Amino acid sequence: MVRRLAFALAVALSGCGVDGPPEVPRVADEPGVTVTGDARMGVVFTP
User: Fold this and answer.
1) More confident residue, 17 or 47
2) DSSP conformation letters of 21-46
3) pLDDT tens digits, residue range 23-33?
4) Which of 14, 17, 40 is nearest to 6 (CA)?
5) Which superkingdom is the protein from (predicted)?
6) Which residue has the higher pLDDT, 32 or 7?
7) CA 40 to CA 13: how far, in whole Å?
């Protein structure tokens, strides 16, 4: 029981800014092309 509680506490604290204070995202210096989204491919069989 104590090990599970210690593990849960370690997991909870690992996401609480342990790596340092939050940083503002940097803006790209030069314009560029960004492509986002997702593609899917497949076959659908209907009875």
Assistant:
1) 47
2) S--PPPPPSS----------------
3) 888 876 677 77
4) 14
5) Bacteria
6) 7
7) 37
**Cα separation of 8 and 2, whole Å?**
10
Q: Give the tens place of pLDDT for each residue, 35-47.
A: 888 888 888 888 7
Tokens at 4, concatenated: 């599970």
Residue 16 has pLDDT above 70, yes or no: no
Distances (CA, A) of 19 to 16, 41, 47: 8, 39, 54
Whole-angstrom Cα distance, residue 43 to residue 41?
Answer: 7
Cα–Cα distance, 2 to 17 (Å, whole number): 24
